[in-house]
Amino acid sequence: MTNILILGAGFGGINAALKLEEKLKNNPDIKITLIDRNNFHLFTPSLYEVATVYDLIENSFNQYLRGSVAVPIGEILKNKKINFIQSEIKEIKLKEKYILTGGGARLGFDYLVIALGGETEFYEIPGVRDYAFNFKSADDAIGIYKKIREIYRNYQKEKNNKTIKIAVIGGGFTGVELAAELGCCISNIIKNHKLSKSCTSIELFEAGPTILPAINEKARKIIEKKIEEEIVRIRVNSPVSEVGPDFIKINSDSATSRKRLGGTFDEQDRGERLNFDLIIWAGGIHGSKLLENLGLKLTKKKTVEINEFLQTKNLDDSVNDKIFAIGDNATLIDSKNQKPVPAMAYVAYGQGTVAAENIIREAEKEKLSPYKPFYDLWIAPAGGKWAYFHYKDLDITGFFGYLLRQLVDLRHFLRILSLKKAIVLFFKDLVIFTKND
After folding, report:
1. Model's pTM, two decimal places?
2. pLDDT by residue (tens digit) across 71-92?
């Protein structure tokens, strides 16, 4: 019996399992096992929608929100010859070819796919872990949703004139999407509860000179203009040095702030302390802690280095050839530009396909297929029914960009679910998430 073990049910892991099952389901000598600490596949691209959804029924929002982004593994693997184990992974022994689970089980493998995803990177900034809302899981998103409701309920009860201040730290795709959708959510609250338009300020902090540093300048300016319309103020060159229960400190020689109106810049004081009612951390990720004791060379982001076939490095060939790493916990250097392939959901999905193919090829002693990186596709939702869709030389903004984003989401659901279940989940999300638009 050949045991193929897949660690993690994210985009890469779930796809690797499904592709392997598709090719090997008629082989009785193959056993495919998928293990994850959760019993669901998290659709991370919609987390920002969960955190900012507007006007859900109080006693049912947990169920609705969680169900909109957490797809049960049982539904994905129904009628599939894939063994699923819900458990924490305690230790991975590559040379000995087994893992230990939190429950004490020992699971052997002949082939291993490491698809553990990433963990939040706090950069050792004091107070971030303790006082800022993390933004990585469904529970994180629901916690932000609850906090927003609490803030505005208290504001209406107290009937004061203070400004509610919200900070989003991190100017990558996650932070930008969240800040923009927060603007839509708050605008709806203000309108429907007849509050002053100036009762809330949202500030997006980025340590570097620009938000969305991975995209071109033209696209960035269009997105900046759009999110500034959503009562969001962008503050670049503003690295956070400390977070408290109701404040953040900015430490920079030349921190700048772009005002929502006019696009001008204001100089900020070095070491400035700013008070906030809600602080959200969207500052990046690093590899899983489980990778630290594998005997593999890790990058600065604590991810595993992999070769063009998605195999791990630094072990003897008899082990390397059978260990694959994909998704956020792996780093591949693109030979075209000598830069790391970026961590994106569809990139992990594509790596899952290649890893599955190469496991089959390696088992049959065939030449492996190299992974050909492609990441010239991205979509940046920026509030309401508006998104920037980029694919190679094609750029589509506004409502049609938003429609393309919806089609991309539907495509993923169709890949992992039956037609009926995919459509039901897709339209359920539309009904919930368009309340902000």
Report:
1. 0.91
2. 999 999 999 999 999 999 999 9
